[in-house]
Structure formats: structure tokens, C-alpha cells
Amino acid sequence: MPKTENILHATCVTAWSQGVLIVGPSGSGKSSLALRLMAIGAELVADDRTRLQLRDQQLVATCPSPIAGQIEARGIGILAARTAGSAIIRLVVDMGQVEENRLPPERQITLLGQSLPLLHSSVHAHFPAAILQYLKGGRIA
């Protein structure tokens, strides 16, 4: 029987009822990207550990209760944050991979049997804004 739940070392935010799952190794900037997205309108779902569940063929992210409403800001501490209770994941960002292409190929990742769009990290200042625009309008090329 396929797995229908998993807790990942990942951070998740949501905007416009669409979740962004941020994955990558420790220290790769998952919480930092989440904070930048939150500063421009996203809401925190979970930081550091994210529970993924398969519901009606959609991946739903929630936060394990002991860490709900908390996000780490390196060099500052653990901060309190208003949170969204859950999010349907629409995009995955891998902070462990840096995008080298100006117009990268469309990539996918499979989590709990579901295929999702995947972006690699970008060093460009517009990256958080581009993620939110991706959620709003999608990618056309």
C-alpha cells in the first residue's frame, strides 16, 4: 500500500491558498526564503518539519503541533508567526540545488506518489517575488 503521510525536514508557506514546500539540507536557507516570502504576503504553515498527507490526490501540508507558529531566523532566534493551518502544495523549491539556467527546463518531483513542479534555488533578488508570481499566474515557458 502506498504511503499517505510523511514528515519532512522542510519548511512550508502558503499564498492564495497554494502551498510552497521548501526543501534542502540544513543551513541551505529554507527558513530564510520563507521569511522573505512572508515579508511579501505569504503565511507560514510550518518551519523545519512539515507533515505531508495525501488527501483526495492532493498533497496537504500541516505543522506538527510542538513547533506551530514558530520560525527560526538565524542570528536572531525563534520568532512567533501567524500561521495558516494547512496548504495544498502546488510548488516545491529545492534550496540544495542552485539554478544555473536563465530559462530552466520544467522539472518535477514526486512526493507520496504525486508529481509537483520543482524549482531550484536562485541567487537573484527577485526569487521570492517570482515564486509568488508563479503561484498567481503559473509558468508559460
Task: Describe, in plain words, how this protein is organized in 3D.
The chain has 2 helices and 11 strands. The protein has helices at 30-39, 127-137; strands at residues 5-8, 10-15, 18-23, 43-46, 50-55, 58-62, 70-73, 77-80, 87-98, 107-111, 114-121. Strands 1, 2, 3, 4, 5, 6, 9, 10 and 11 form a 9-stranded mixed β-sheet that branches. A two-stranded antiparallel sheet has the order 7-8. Strand 10 (107-111) and strand 11 (114-121) form a beta hairpin. The longest helix is centred in the C-terminal third of the chain and has 11 residues, at 127-137. 28% of the residues are buried.
Would you tell me the overall average pLDDT?
96
Name the CATH class: Alpha Beta
Poorly predicted tracts of residues: none
Report the strand count. 11
Share of residues in strands = over 45%
The CATH architecture would be 3-Layer(aba) Sandwich
Radius of gyration: 14 Å
* Main beta sheet strand tally, sense and closure: 9 strands, mixed
Count of separate DSSP helical elements: 2
- Domain count: the total is 1
CATH superfamily: P-loop containing nucleotide triphosphate hydrolases
**Alpha carbon gap, first and last residue:** 36 Å
Q: What is the CATH topology assignment?
A: Rossmann fold
Short description:
The protein is mainly beta and 141 residues long.
What is the strand and helix layout of this fold?
Blueprint: E1 5-8, E2 10-15, E3 18-23, H1 30-39, E4 43-46, E5 50-55, E6 58-62, E7 70-73, E8 77-80, E9 87-98, E10 107-111, E11 114-121, H2 127-137
Parallel strand pairs: 3-9, 9-11
Antiparallel strand pairs: 1-5, 2-3, 2-4, 5-6, 6-9, 7-8, 10-11
